[in-house]
Write a structure and sequence with these properties.
Structural class of chain A: mainly alpha
Strand order of the largest sheet of chain A: 1-2
Number of domains of chain A: 3
Largest interface: A-B, 85 and 85 residues
Mean pLDDT of chain A: 94
CATH topology of the largest domain in chain A: Fumarase C, Chain A, domain 2
Oligomer: homotetramer
Shape of chain A: elongated
Strand content of chain A: under 5%
Radius of gyration of chain A: 31 Å
Largest sheet of chain A: 2 strands, antiparallel
Order of helices and strands of chain A: HHHHHHEEHEHEHEHHHEHHHHHHHH
Number of helices of chain A: 20
Chain lengths: 433, 433, 433, 433
């Protein structure tokens, strides 16, 4: 966790305090279930809930105990017993440490998912607002970094909206993947604990029971979770790079908001750097990289080995905290993005109408000119523009081969930008409903 | 594509012949739609379908043309025109190369998904059959590679069944991701082509229209597709490693089928190597690795750059062909796996009953012995077994501290394996329904 | 291996023919060594060399035998015996298959390295030539994609030269890593073969004996090899992206050479796409990705497991063939790159001298103006340029606060581009010697 | 940074205090050089050194300033000025922030490398000690997890020693890669600063000047650095997995040291889990994963973009701190490893001599028996052992086909373990010199 790339709500999910509180709740819910089944006294279960709920767990005390026992759950239970007293012997009955640890991790990931989904909704809201704002703002579309045909800035943002809508759906699916609870004992056979305990605890925590576990909850679930985060990060990277391109000095069609106090280039007004988007590019690399160890964690030995644990201590917090931060930062970038429609138009017209060459070509072939001849005619005029800075429309109007098949009106129509934007509403309807 | 890790049906999806056939169909469907809209003559559309359907495209001829034009779609259209004649000028009207290329890639990935889903069904069938066969075959469960508590071999296979059921669902979702068609022109604005053409072609191909495209279909879809394949590969690795462990000389609880002609260790009957599972381990690494360039492909520049293309020429075929092969190989390994229940029982009993120490411990605490005392008592007897090879049951029966709270019957009950298998049916019901 | 990204010389290293030829040579060299040690008859060794050297191995025949034996080396030895006759029983004595397989892989990687080093030399040559050609061609340097201070195009190329010089050195080191030979028997103990055989064969093949092997040559060597290729690919990506940026429509300071026959945008002269550099970007992603399964291959079980083998069947050829292709393609791109110094100058002057603001600022502080005041003064004039398109030099000359401390000559000197290029020769000397 | 996987010395390298101290030293050295060149007064340089050396930088104060300026170096310089007074205007003259930042990162990585090299030396020492201790301790070697031929435990450790010796050399090379200093100004042209300043500072810090930089030190250096760490992590993983295998219940040839207070399985003496090695397996996955974003950092835009920065805030500390911890943990595991030679011998003899079948086979062929016949004879006897638990030696002695060509003495000799260990000294000499 890098403090500067962290937000408190998500960070708090991963604090020891939160973890121990979830541990307690799982143990206490299990006690309730055990009491219902008559395995432990109802009074004990009540007492455990009462004393534990009011207890303020002392993280450093637990770490102290763990330093001796080298076992985190036993250390916690020992500390818990200090609050609960003799009834503590009913806690954790028939359970194994991983029942607590794995269910807790999933609770944390579920909570993290909820924040991420909320973040995504904020991002979608910002994208939608700006997309409608610039729905009809014409600009040049680019393939290979080279001018292609006109599009609108609203379409760019609508595209991002559609992409992040897919990311949202993937996130919801990823949350589903890890919303399971396992309380199944040492090798998952329920030898020492009734499966109804698991069912009860799962229900209380808003989870599904893991259909079959082997001490641990299977890690293909987590691999899928972190792989999904990696894909989402890649979409963040895409939009960040789009913004960086638009802010390039020679392009300058959009710009990250620049706060007045911000220094470093105060005497160079052209030197406004897209540092937030560059930062997002780097953060995306990190989030994506976490998918790799998560996938390697799947192949644990037999019923379990603990090699996944150290990986998850890193990527559990780091991936969710960083993605939360990145989504919020991206939302802010989009929200406050400075957009320069005049520059968009200036860039669009850079080649004096050449951008319409494709349309003219098509018009010629539709009038019966062979593809080869049409190419040659258009190319001839295009070269006048390219090499001598002539105006493409004027050249075409003056070319007898063109005029033979196309009227002035027909030619002028090919230079109408409305031609390119006529389906924008259709597309917006598809994307935003 | 490595021939030895390839199966013909999947390979054929990626052949140039298949690709050109799909290209043709997309173009021809588009012509039908254009004819319906009155853009091109109905006769032309009919003629294109007829001549094109009967045409036998000559791959080397197309490559020859491409060598000059350096443009694959134009090369194909030129070749197609050789079959269709003058009506060929109606082909590809208002379309852009990527309309064809991207839709084709998705058609190929859809077909590949269908094979993979079929493979997965075969694997699930094999796992289910063997799971029921060994439902009650008791063996030791292992955590950290160390004996823990008894489980059954059927449970191991049921666990794999549940895992691959999840993988199947993920695969279905992944197929959905890439089941889109885009025919939206140079920068996705439909400037030169009516959106209804896209809708028609999509429908004919069993796809959804891509809600918003930018010359290309967005690559977050493909990133999600290949990431999913990477997760599935990781699950294959898990099961392969399980088998390799079970076949270790000292464990030998299961073994890959060994064909009579197979050489290399004919004089060393103990030297039957789990080469298929080892091979699957390596193949999984490859399939997993393909997820990363796929994620890097997401952040294309502006409306598109073509950097994804070379990546997809590798991973499109390699990931699907290799996963198809791996799933089939794993199915065969499971199907023919030699299982040795006697060795399982021998290994289970390796420590003369020590495996039941946890149960005895629990029983003591349930009888009111403090956790600390119970530990001490059990440990004392365990050490007799561990250090002097004594029998755990006999030691406990002879220990007055134990006998004070537990009767002989109660102690003997702790050594009953049925205790561990009592919920197997419940778990099977959860997994197999 | 993707044919379109492959060159024949590198491909041939990975052909079955080459592989079997190397197998033969290792076996035959071992025979010579065994004969010298008196283990086998000298006549036999001679006969083996003679018959084997003239033999034309039949790949399909070997595959046929392998289909039965499921063991590639035995299949080859069986085929070899068909040429050599009874003396074939002296072949492979005391050796294990991996002795042949692993040494062969390293021979192939050494040969591949030699080609890659040669490729790198070609690239360096092209970079050096073009660097000197444009040593003094001034252009704007950019940080964050935003104009910073002037540099020269030659410096850009010199930077790439220095980077690829490092890559060359890394490649030489990587080759060293894998230049080892192992002929040490089933678990590397030389139980069945004298270590002097290994020493002899190593020497004949230009290798070092692997100090300690365990049936196989340790895979950390190969991990390092492929990781190095991944780093080199990343440097290729850097230069490719530089070129793609320079070719952007709005920048257009350089352009990939565009062959006359090349179609697709013949009527749109502005539509020359940097497709080669985009292709290099994608290829780099692939080569980089191969480093990861190579690293996962290190942790083989005990003395060996064979999980690395399938990985290497992919990445051995794919990484080297693709890198060879990419280096050659990059060399060609650099060699023929179209460079537009006028556009460089036009872009540099885009902001009417603002690029010199930093120098003016520095000059003011050096004359005793406080940093804060200097900022304010420069900023005031910069804003006139930025917002009203004024000329920065004229504004400064007219500003009394500036003139109070700087003479006209001093101000004008701040606009001298020579200021920025005065150390180019020094840097070139550092880079090129 | 995960506290439980961190050691203080390495952590301190990455503290803000250390960072600011290095920043100061770079600035102060640069002042000395500028004074020597007559650019700033000598008195000022002296004053800066004196005041700065004694200053206790206040991290929270700097962060406070940065919150306003959004620029870390300016914030630091502002704070520094609070100590130095008016002479502070001579600090940072002609320099750019990256001169300080990049050189500092490299200083930190150099110091980190020094610790890692020291760690590696400790590990090598432990491996060597234990290798000689068990030089002649015979155990079975395993390929594919299956018994192959005898080796010694000392050879296993010698193999690890050789592997980590290579890792040490790679680490030294990696340190060399990043031991460069850049003080070259905004785009690396030295426009505002004399190259001799860079040379002087580099010299003072024990670095080489970066031959050509572009505001930043090229990131292929860092990619190589972190890729090397990834390879080293993979070697750690290999040894950790070896230990995990040896500790498997059925194998139990070695065991991690188990401290008396350690709980969790106190009543199950067989339940000693190789948790340290499992932990090392997970940590290796993390360290390896960091190589990926490091490689992606290479392709920065033009003279620089800042996307690498966020990545390095993660992986700079995380990779070095985790590797330091892992190396120390592995050293401790090796140092205290419990080794069970009796179990090794018991496992070796598991198949009543079958392990010698290969030698018998070879002996028969050397006596002129054809390979096919020899196979058949050995196989026949092997099957008696495998299926009926007979003793291989006795079977062979009783087999007339064997006795026809081999005397009793010759047969018995094939069961002599000394045969397998006769070259151990040679190999040790190769490895340890």
């Amino acid at each position: 966790m890098i403090p500067r790339y962290s937000r408190p709500e998500m960070v708090s999910i991963w604090s020891p305090e939160t973890k121990y509180r979830i541990w307690f709740e799982i143990e206490a819910h299990a006690c309730t279930a055990l009491a219902k089944l008559g395995v432990i006294p109802e009074e004990a279960a009540k007492n455990i809930w009462e004393k534990g709920s009011n207890a303020k767990f002392d993280v450093s005390r637990i770490e102290e105990i763990e330093a001796v026992t080298k076992h985190d759950v036993i250390a916690f239970l020992t500390h818990l017993a200090e609050f609960i007293g003799p009834d503590s012997r009913f806690v954790h009955q028939g359970m194994t440490s991983s029942d607590v640890l794995d269910t807790t991790l999933n609770v944390q990931l579920m909570r993290a998912s909820d924040i991420l989904i909320k973040d995504m909704d904020e991002l979608l809201k910002a994208l939608k607002k700006r997309a409608f704002e610039y729905k009809d703002t014409v600009m040049i579309g680019r393939s290979h970094g080279i001018h292609a045909e006109p599009t609108t800035f609203g379409l760019k943002l609508a595209f991002a909206y559609a992409e992040f809508s897919r990311c949202r759906a993937r996130l919801v699916a990823a949350k589903e993947e890890i919303s399971t609870c396992a309380i199944s004992g040492a090798v998952g056979t329920f030898a020492n604990i009734d499966p109804r305990v698991e069912a009860y605890v799962a229900d209380q925590l808003g989870m599904r029971p893991e259909p079959i576990s082997t001490q641990i909850i299977p890690r293909d679930r987590h691999a899928m979770f972190f792989a999904t985060l990696g894909v989402i990060a890649s979409s963040i990277e895409r939009l960040a790079i789009e913004i960086r391109h638009l802010q390039r000095t020679e392009v300058l069609e959009a710009e990250e908001y620049f706060s007045p106090g911000q220094k470093g280039s105060s005497a160079m007004p052209h030197k406004r750097n897209p540092v937030l988007s560059e930062n997002l590019t780097g953060l995306s690399r990190m989030i994506r990289s976490f998918a790799f160890p998560a996938m390697e964690d799947v192949a644990l030995w037999h019923e379990r080995d603990i090699s996944h644990s150290s990986v998850e201590r890193f990527i559990g917090p780091d991936a969710t905290i960083t993605l939360d931060f990145a989504l919020a930062r991206l939302t802010s970038v989009i929200d406050k993005l400075l957009v320069y429609p005049e520059n968009m138009m200036k860039n669009l017209n850079k080649f004096h109408g050449l951008v319409n060459s494709q349309r003219v070509l098509l018009a010629l072939t539709q009038k019966g000119v062979s593809r080869e001849d049409a190419y040659r005619i258009v190319q001839r005029n295009a070269m006048q523009v390219w090499e001598h800075g002539k105006d493409f429309l004027q050249e075409l109007l003056a070319d007898p081969d063109v005029r033979r098949v196309l009227s002035e009106e027909e030619i002028r129509e090919k230079f109408d930008l409305g031609y390119h934007t006529k389906h924008v509403d259709t597309i917006f309807h598809r994307v935003f409903g």
